[in-house]
Write a structure and sequence with these properties.
By secondary structure, the protein is of the alpha/beta class. The chain folds into 2 domains: 10-88, Ribosomal Protein L15, Chain: K, domain 2; 95-272, Up-down Bundle (Four Helix Bundle (Hemerythrin (Met), subunit A)), CATH 1.20.120. Helix content is 44%, strand content 13%. The strands form 2 sheets. The protein has a 4-stranded mixed β-sheet. A 4-stranded mixed β-sheet has the order 4-3-2-6. The chain is globular. The chain starts with 13 loop residues before the first strand and ends in a 31-residue tail after the last helix.
């Protein structure tokens, strides 16, 4: 029999890793990437939250199965991580949390409370009273545009507007390309946290109608304190392979800021603002992907 898995909690993991031009496989029990010359590079899949597979990456059945067992999200993306094609959900969903999320999104009053909480967390102040979700979305958009301008000015980057074409990556200016690469990192990390906590990436509150609506909602709460300053800083430096430099800088920023430790508690805080009780899971519900082991004593016991 296989030994019992003891996966790392998502808050203790590395954030994201990008893989391109290699065969992702399990060889001799290790999760590896094999390049065209046959050189193996070991990937600590059990301590990574999200693996981004770029064009040129091929993945075996054994690698997908192992990633799912240890709770690592695999995301198939375009070059530089700009487009998302598919994602594999690791572990099991929490039916009670999923039902709670859907009830909050379907109740107009509860949804508005959640959106107002997101606004307060994002901008550090209470939103204007007696505003609908659509009105708050418009106010948010105007403030976001001003924040882009302010952060670009601080970094010394020439900025016009947020504008890029995913179908024509090279058509965007340097600042927009850096921002796209940076936000792709944040979206992958946020989706891994949303799935690990048992929620649906598609059931959003501000964003709606897209496969990653809730991921965008959560990522936006952290975007301007994490990846946007990083993207503008790299754009101002204009290094060779700027998108690669952005991805590395985002990875370091996530680790240094402890972002993974904050995402799931923030999700709970935001949804709790809707003031709807969380339903109890039915007896036959799928449990958490990695349940907490029972302790040997009470809260004060030290083993």
């Amino acid at each position: 029999m296989l030994p019992r898995l003891s996966p790392l909690a998502i808050k203790d993991r590395l954030s994201v890793m990008f893989i391109e031009r290699g065969q992702v496989d399990v060889l001799d029990g290790a999760f590896v990437v094999v390049d065209v010359t046959g050189v193996r590079t070991h990937i600590p899949v059990g301590s990574v939250s999200c693996l981004m597979l770029e064009p040129g990456a091929r993945v075996s059945h054994a690698a997908v199965a192992l990633a799912a067992r240890v709770g690592c999200l695999l995301v198939w993306v375009g070059e530089a991580g700009v487009r998302l094609y598919a994602a594999g959900q690791p572990g099991g969903a929490r039916s009670d949390r999923l039902l709670w999320q859907v009830r909050l999104a379907d109740d107009e009053s509860a949804r508005l409370k959640v959106v107002r909480k997101m606004y307060a967390l994002r901008f550090g102040e209470e939103p204007p009273a007696r505003r609908s979700v659509e009105q708050l979305r418009g106010i948010e958009g105007a403030r976001v545009r001003r924040m882009y301008e302010l952060l670009a000015s601080r970094a010394g980057v020439k900025w016009k507007r947020r504008d890029y074409d995913p179908q024509d990556w090279g058509s965007g200016d340097l600042a927009n390309r850096c921002l796209s690469a940076a936000t792709a990192c944040l979206y992958g990390l946020s989706e891994a946290a949303v799935l690990a906590a048992g929620y649906s990436p598609a059931v959003g509150f501000i964003h709606t109608g897209k496969p990653l609506s809730f991921v965008y909602d959560i990522a936006d709460l952290f975007k301007f304190e994490t990846v946007v300053p990083v993207a503008f800083r790299i754009a101002a430096q204009n290094p060779p392979e700027s998108e690669r430099a952005v991805r590395h800088a985002c990875r370091d920023s996530f680790r240094q800021s402890g972002l993974l430790k904050r995402i799931i508690p923030t999700i709970e805080e935001v949804l709790s603002a809707g003031d709807l009780p969380r339903p109890q899971p039915p007896p036959d519900a799928i449990g958490p992907a990695f349940p907490e082991p029972e302790g040997m004593g009470d809260a004060g016991h030290r083993a």
